[in-house]
Amino acid sequence: MLALSGALMPGPMLTVTISETPRKGPLTGPLLILGHGIAEIILILALIVGLAPFLQNQLVSTIIFLFGGSFLIYMGASMLRSIPELSLTGQETGSPSKNIILSGFLYSAANPYWIIWWGTIGLGYIVYSKQFGTIGLITFFIGHILADFAWYSFISVGLHKGKHLLQDKHYKILIGICGIFLLFLAITFIYKGLTSSL
């Protein structure tokens, strides 16, 4: 339930799930979370071997926020630029490519709050889980990632099933909202990075 409360929070992963599912199909959400899970495993292993103090450094935090904000500006602007050419007709490939997995990895790595959360709150869960040995860490991670898989699968399947209700103009509006949301997040991240360094 704790993991699900985090999964339900809107952010870059939700935005890309909404924008890509109508074109890539119902496996979009699970494949994005596969990429997200790979990023989380790498970060958890890095935290276990001592990365946490590095992530908690003020300069590193600032760089993470500025990098993440810049990446999201690029992605949000790309979404907005693509709107005139978007169409739902014949778009779905039925077999999402490996690029979706890579997107899950990159959107996770570019989200400063995700990185900072793992370096602080998530680290506490790791330390607690380690009391139960390797099985404790594995159980913690499985519970954590299953919440993401459940929520994003629900989103993708719901969007896929309801796609016939969308017209191209509605889809373009949806992508426009997602793009603007990413730009808003980007500005928030950059502002946070710049003000935290003052």
What does this structure look like?
- The structure is a single chain.
- By secondary structure, this protein is mainly alpha-helical.
- Helix content is 79%, strand content 0%.
- The relative contact order is 0.23.
- The model has no long low-confidence stretch (mean pLDDT 83).
- It has one domain.
- α2 packs across α9 and α2 runs antiparallel to α10.
- The chain has 10 helices and no strands.
What is the structure about, briefly put?
This protein has 198 residues and is mostly helical.
Silhouette: flat
User: Please, what is the average pLDDT?
Assistant: 83
What is the number of helices?
10
State the major sheet.
Answer: none
- In percent, how much strand structure appears in the residues? under 5%
- Poorly predicted runs are none
Using DSSP, what is the number of strands? 0
Spatial gap, N to C terminus: 37 Å
Question: What's the Cα radius of gyration?
Answer: 18 Å
Order of helices and strands: HHHHHHHHHH
Question: What share of residues is helical?
Answer: over 70%
* Structural class by secondary-structure content: mainly alpha
Total domain modules: 1
Keywords:
198 residues, mainly alpha, 0% strand, flat
Give the topology.
Layout: H1 2-7, H2 12-24, H3 28-48, H4 52-55, H5 58-82, H6 98-109, H7 112-119, H8 121-130, H9 133-161, H10 168-196
